[in-house]
Amino acid sequence: MKNKINYLAIIVFYAIAILCRYLTNKAGILDGIGNEYLKSILTGIGPTLGAVAVFFIFKIKPTMSIKGNYKNLTFPILMYWVFPIILISGVAYFTKGTIPWMIVLSILIYGLLEEIGWRGFLYQQLKELPLFTNILIVATLWFLWHLNFELTSSNLLFYGILILGSWGIGKVTDATNSLIAVSAFHSLNNFFPNLDNTKILILALLLTAWIIALVSRKRMQKNIG
């Protein structure tokens, strides 16, 4: 039996997420923080605070975890966090002489903070709805949360990417139940704001490796079952 949708919890969650986003991105509340990595991470904290608040206020039990349905945390950490850090940093070292592991790590943490809210709470809370309706609502609220309301072609493209991303990350959510895994897929769009051939190749390698890992795991579970 599916759980009944708690619309009041969704409203409270989203109000907190939006308020935090406004304070961190528009009101300059983070201006006093000198560490740029920490500042960047904190701009995505709203969905996490909103989710934690409604979990506590409405006694909602989280259905996702860091480990998810993996036997232990080792594999998801190595595959979805360590692998992109090493790959992106390694390519950057050989092409530019830099090792941007802190940038990659901060992007992954930022993605985790968002996903605790979007997939860890909202997607789960809307499971009673038809899948497309769920995806459309999550993508729309996710888009509006960015507080960028200009009607430009780039924004429309971004909205389309969020719809596609909500579908894809939803698949990862259902397959792994792991916040580590979904945060990695979330971060694909943030690793490289501007693409070139090298960056496209890196993204293709990451996506291919992760999809193969998910498909292989599903087949193994099916054979065991």
Structure report:
- By secondary structure, the chain is an all-alpha fold.
- It has one domain (64-224).
- It contains 9 helices and no strands.
Put the structure in a nutshell.
By secondary structure, the protein is mainly α. The protein has one domain. It is built from nine helices and no strands.
Characteristics:
225 residues; 9 helices; mainly alpha
- Tally of DSSP β-strands: 0
Q: Sketch the topology as an H/E string, one letter per element.
A: HHHHHHHHH
Share of residues in helices: over 70%
Q: Provide the β-strand percentage band.
A: under 5%
Secondary-structure blueprint:
Elements: H1 7-25, H2 36-42, H3 46-57, H4 74-96, H5 101-125, H6 131-145, H7 153-176, H8 179-191, H9 197-224
Helix pairs in contact: 1-3, 2-5, 3-5, 4-5, 4-8, 4-9, 5-8, 6-7, 7-8
